[in-house]
Amino acid sequence: MKCLVCGGAMKTTVENYKYQSLPGVTLVNVRVDRCSACGESEVEIPRIEDLNKAVALAVISKHGRLNSAEIRFLRKSLGWSGADLARHMGAEPDTVSRWENNKQRIGPHTDRLLRLMVAVGQPVESYQLDSLEHISDKPEKLRLALHADASGWTAESAAA
Predict the structure, then answer these.
(1) Where are the domains of the chain?
(2) Helix, strand or coil for residue 29?
(3) Which CATH architecture fits 47-135?
(4) How many other CB atoms are there within 10 angstroms of residue 149's CB atom?
(5) What is the pLDDT of residue 127?
(6) pTM above 0.85, yes or no
(7) Which residues sit opposite 14 in a β-bridge?
(8) What is the residue-level pLDDT of the chain in tens, covering all 160 positions?
(9) pLDDT at position 108, please?
(10) Is residue 41 within a helix (H) or strand (E), and if so which, with residue range?
(11) Cβ neighbours of residue 88 under 8 Å, at least 6 residues apart?
């Protein structure tokens, strides 16, 4: 294998590698190709989607409040832009920017909401995360009719 930068020969080793997507994360025993001429390196990260899911689950399991790099990593793991995250959380895009740039700490309730969104991973069929942006400030009485069948309970809106 030749170096893409200088054309020199690459040597393959197995080593620990600091994961650049999130500070404090080290990948153990990954393949690294390093050019002996210029020092350029290429890291082979197998099953990167699974890796990012594992990192995200570890982040949302920590006890301390999320920091700016973790918020950015979790947002990206959801596949959202800053504006998307703001919309889903009922926040302003500039607020999300301040969280991610360490200008403002994320509040405890918002921290929990972001962790829940990551834990769910994908919106569940019966409650889409997109519906969070449409929650009204006006109180509304809950009226449901629930029906049991062989597969479980089904809820539907009851007539007033």
Answers:
(1) 1-46, 47-135
(2) strand
(3) Orthogonal Bundle (1.10)
(4) 7
(5) 42
(6) no
(7) 31
(8) 899 999 999 999 999 999 988 989 999 999 999 999 999 999 998 888 888 888 999 999 998 999 999 999 999 999 899 999 999 888 999 999 999 999 999 999 999 999 999 998 754 333 455 555 555 667 667 666 766 778 877 766 655 5
(9) 94
(10) strand 41-44
(11) 80, 117, 129, 130, 132, 133
What is the C-alpha to C-alpha distance for residues 55 and 42, in angstroms, rounded to an integer? 21
Residues 6+ apart with CB under 8 A from 145: 155, 156, 157, 158
Distance CA 98, CA 84 (A): 15
User: Most distant CA pair in the chain: distance in Å?
Assistant: 77
Structure tokens at 20: 């650049």
Q: Which two tokens stand for residue 102?
A: 């360490």
Q: Provide, for the chain, the percentages of residues in helix, strand and coil under a 3-state DSSP scheme, each rounded to the nearest 5.
A: 35, 25, 40
Residues in contact with 86: Cβ distance below 8 Å, sequence separation at least 6, in sequence order: 92, 93, 95, 96
Structural contact between residues 25 and 70, judged by C-beta atoms closer than 8 angstroms:
no
The answer to whether the CB of 96 falls within 8 A of the CB of 110 is: no
